[in-house]
Amino acid sequence: MNFAPWLSMLAVVLAGGATALQAPTNARLATAVNGPVNAAFVSFAVGTAALGILAAILHTRPDVEAAKGLPWYAWIGGLYGVIFVVAATWAVPRLGVAMTITLMVAGQLMLSLILDHFGALGVPQAPISLTRLAGVALVIGGVILVRRG
């Protein structure tokens, strides 16, 4: 039996849990460092240091030649992270963790359907279907239930 897909799914679920922890952690930090942008800066600095240590432990080195051939958008992933972290840091004290994360997941799913449908940014193409739309509708329904809860 191939366990790789199950391990991948478990890793992603755990990473999702980490984002649920990250939002209130950074919101708490924001109270001490004068706002969500400063909290995000500290968060990214700590994350950058952790990645540097991990890369050193794993002895990984970037392939400079391959990096030169990348399209421009391959270099701006960190900007999306900035938007995510600042928005979550700002929203948690106003909306709560569950509402913030639920809304973020809804936004991720809606854009994901579009990216998959068109095969944008080099992802495999997967057309929008009624089943996939129903899945997103269920998440949006979850947003409504969390809001009313």
TrEMBL record:
Name listed for the protein in its UniProt record: DMT family transporter
Signal peptide position in this chain?
1-22
Q: Which domain of life is it from?
A: Bacteria
Say which species the protein is native to: Brevundimonas staleyi
Q: Which UniProt keywords apply?
A: Membrane, Signal, Transmembrane, Transmembrane helix
Return the Pfam families for the record: DMT_YdcZ
Question: Taxonomic lineage per UniProt?
Answer: Bacteria, Pseudomonadati, Pseudomonadota, Alphaproteobacteria, Caulobacterales
Name the residues that span the membrane: 39-58, 70-91, 97-115, 127-146
Is Membrane found in the keyword set?
A: yes
